[in-house]
Amino acid sequence: MSEVKKTPPAPGGGAGESPGGRRDPGGGWTRFVTARPRLTLLVALVLTALAVLAGGGVADRMGSGGWEDPAAESSYATGALEREFPGSQPNVLLLVDAGKAGVDDPAVAAEARRLTARLAAEPGVEGVGSYWAGGSPALRSEDGTKAVVAARIAGEEKAAGDILDRIAPAYRGTHGPVEVTLGGGLAVRHEMQTIIQEDLLRAELIALPVTLVLLVMVFGSAVAALLPLGVGIVAILGTNAVLRGITEFTDVSVFAQNLTTALGLGLAIDYALFVVRRYREELAAGAEPPAAVRTTLRTAGRTVLFSALTVAVSLAAMLVFPQYFLRSFAYAGIAVVLLAAAAALTLLPAALVLLGHRVDALDLRRLLRRRRAPARDTGAATGWSRAADLVMRRAPVFAVLTTAGLVLLGLPFLGVKFGTADDRQLPATATSRIVQEELRAGFPGDPGGSLTVLAEGPATPAEYGAYRERVAALDGIVRVDGPVVSGTGADTHAYYSVVPDGPATGEGAQRAVGELRAADAPFTTSVTGQAAVLVDSKDAIADRLPWAAGIIVLVTLLLVFLLTGSVLIPVQAVVLNALSLTAMFGAVVWVFQDGHLSGLLGFTATGDIETTLPVLMFCVAFGLSMDYGVFLLSRIKEEYDTTGDHEGAVRFGLARTGGLITAAAVILAVVMVAIGTSRVTNTKMLGLGVALAVLMDAMVVRSLLVPAVMKLTGRLTWWAPGPLRRFHDRFGISESGQPPAAATDTPEERREPVGARG
């Protein structure tokens, strides 16, 4: 094989050609942005203003559920029961506290019946029942001081929430001899939605000023520090407009707004750091601002676009799941990633052209240090370069110890238990949670833990009775109520209420779901309830998880191959990214499931993890890890294409991007921790867990494990078989903008050319 020789690009290069003479496919866009920066900014600002108008009130159109599979048996049964027996599925409860007088006191009973009748007359409210109407012992507390009025507010979630807001003030509070508080599933979800919106605003107020301070510390210049924030705000506002449009066609979870804020700021900062850093390098090399921007777009701009695609693919994998909770994060994530990249490649370059050398204006660090001439960051004498040398000299030690440490941190996840989100997600002071706690502690059985068996088709009273006896004889069944029958002939519907022993979603309740579904019956049956929803949700995730993982892995392998031309590096990227997530998953179980640090962090441990959260956290954290991986690999590949020196390329790549990746990770972690201050446990878990994963990836995997592994694999790192090499030569991407170099098998086939590097 002939020696491959390359020369580094001249500063600025041609507007439409790569330094290697190939036509740059992005040259037209580059010329437009650099030639008409004011027009570019004006168009972007107009579109942003329209996005503000279009995205207004998006949170009010979002839901707070979405954990169930809409095609599951439990979802079908719930829908049928809502149509045929509204009273069987109450979602609003009035907890009536009679105090020492007791719920059977005549004055208390009269007031309770008046409240029941008044609630039944409210528009949109149906299926109203109460202890005083039917005398059910399940609706009376064991000490006789409290009882329940149950009702259902019909309609989709947003409309039902509006009705609840309208009627709640009239019932909450003191009514003669009783005190009334509101609870139930609808009240829990509605209060959760309100708290999430309040917490998101607080997180933004925390994250923005702290992020600005960190950016000033990283850039030195206040002007440069404001640019990433501008990109992030544009991405967030644009994503809100996209989500507002999506709500016209499907359900979107309110939790997705947290991801919009976190990724909008985090990725915008990542991309802006990378672009501005490269722009400053070109200015330091003597290029004029327009030429520096052109080179930056042709090099770092390609990497930003490539990185955005890898993150978007990881988030898009959640579209394969049926739960709209997960799909919502895919909608928000894809939109915010692509908009952040678009803003970083349009608004930011246009602003850099207009600012020119003034991008370094208002250097606030001069107040803290004596002025001195800035040293060029060549990487040869930096701490990152020395760290890379140390790691590569002791590569086996660092590789083994780092891998073992990460695996050890992930071991608690082997004991994970999956559950469903309930009122305990809310802070202990939330009214709807207080009501549910009263019901769990003071009423017979677990009022929210019963399973409902829907029976469809004609049957005789004897057949109904025989089935009831068969169900009551099953292991772990405490009580069976019913049947309640409606309709005649083929249109006959009935339901039984089955109370299993133990917690509502415990292992006993989940076993009972399987036994009820397997039990012989003279009619068609379907089972719903909290445990049934959990079983169906776990099955849906298990069925589709291989597809999601396959999409992420295959597309990641392809994209990293296009970036590097190597067969081994894509495999390394997938494995090392997965290792970077072990600490996050171990911490999720140790902290949020087992309850360690629950007092310090202010949440209630439920002994399980909501089923969809690990999937969400994996997709988000894996995508962010790939983001940093692409930044590092692109600079290593650029240097390797120029010099052919494998270890020198690893050293150079880490020296050039180590501080950048660490700064970006710290800033993103600050944003995620701000999200993690939420009073809702799932949001807290998402924010703190992803923050930990990002820091572990940047400070451990990228700094220690990647250089150690690349040292061990040596020049074999860049090997690819002939057909794949030719494919990469034709379709591959390189930050240097040069034709990708063919990987070689022996050191003699590559020599370092004379000339400056990078």
What do you see in this structure?
60% of the residues lie in helices and 8% in strands. The protein is of the alpha+beta class and 758 residues long. The chain has a five-stranded antiparallel β-sheet with strand order 2-3-1-5-4, with helices on both faces. Strands 8-9-7-10 form a four-stranded antiparallel β-sheet, sandwiched between helices. A hairpin with a 2-residue loop joins strand 4 and strand 5. The chain is elongated, with a radius of gyration of 30 Å. Residues 1-26, 370-381 and 737-758 have low confidence and may be disordered.
Low-confidence stretches: 1-26, 370-381, 737-758
Termini Cα gap: 24 Å
Q: Enumerate the strands of the largest sheet in spatial order, edge to edge or round the barrel.
A: 2-3-1-5-4
Derived from helix and strand composition plus strand pairing, the structural class reads alpha+beta
Shape: elongated
Largest sheet: 5 strands, antiparallel
Beta-strand percentage range:
5-15%
User: What is the assembly state of the chains in this entry?
Assistant: single chain
Report helical residue fraction. Answer: 55-70%
Number of helices: 26
Write down how many β-strands occur, each being a DSSP E stretch of 2 or more residues.
Answer: 11
Radius of gyration: 30 Å
Mean pLDDT metric: 84
